[in-house]
Amino acid sequence: MQPTLLVLAAGIGSRYGGLKQVDGVGPSGEAIMEYAVYDAIQAGFGKVVFIIRRAIEADFKAKFDGKFEDRIRVEYVFQETDSPVAGISEWPSREKPWGTGHAVLMAKDVIQEPFAVVNADDYYGADAFYKMAEFLTRDCHASHLAMVGYRIKNTLSEHGTVSRGVCELNDKGQLVGVTERHKIERTDTGIVFADEHGNPSPLDDNAIVSMNLWGLPVQIFTEIERQFLDFFEASKNNPKAEFYIPTVVNRLLSEGRAAVSVLPNEEQWYGVTYREDKDIAQKAFAQFAQEGKYPSPMWG
Questions:
Q1: Is this structure's pTM higher than 0.85?
Q2: What integer pLDDT is reported at residue 12 of this predicted model?
Q3: Domain 4-147+211-243+268-291 is in which class?
Q4: Which of 12, 154, 208, 221 sits between 20 and 30 A of 162, alpha carbons compared?
């Protein structure tokens, strides 16, 4: 059974100042997530599911409809602040989405096979999808998950701070836990993040971080739903609370109910966290086209 690619594209993009999910960065106007779809097709994925909001459906489909349906099956699902979840009858009013864990849950009715999760605004590199496809088709099962790990030095923005899930690994290269670190940046003294008091604290250049490229079994939907109900009861009155994929994974790990393989990747990350990141990404993708790594236009 071919694995599925689940693309998280329902974000608001407040720091970017626009709909970065559809913004063209490739030499022929390709959006960043088109590189993920292309790489997934090459690696043997059989379906792509886009998680979007109703508010962006028209713009999203105007950009992507008809581009790759002849190469991979395409599905759309929607994440809204009141998207139905079994066991919840009344939703509080809020503007911010419920987070990546809730987003993944929205796809439970259209995914029946092992799947990979990616962000729409991150470039992961072809190698990540080949490694993930191999894991999903050979090793993934109910209690065996995977994550592609990147070195933090390859994932920073030159135009502002970023948040990253910093990973702890055991001596077998498996994940022990993910700790979200905020306001990460490179300074004259090295890479630092802001601790709970706002003071700079050092991070090793080669620290492994999660860029939200996860390999998950279909059974994960039951676990996410169970955990989300707990989260909702504890956080429903906090309009800024979000339920993340690493939250789910950390709980599984702490309870000894799953193992998570970390698939190493040495690629340079490109993304558009800030509007100023776009120029760097455009130059990189133009170079990729010149080198023949990707066709241009990609779907011609």
A1: yes
A2: 57
A3: alpha beta
A4: 221
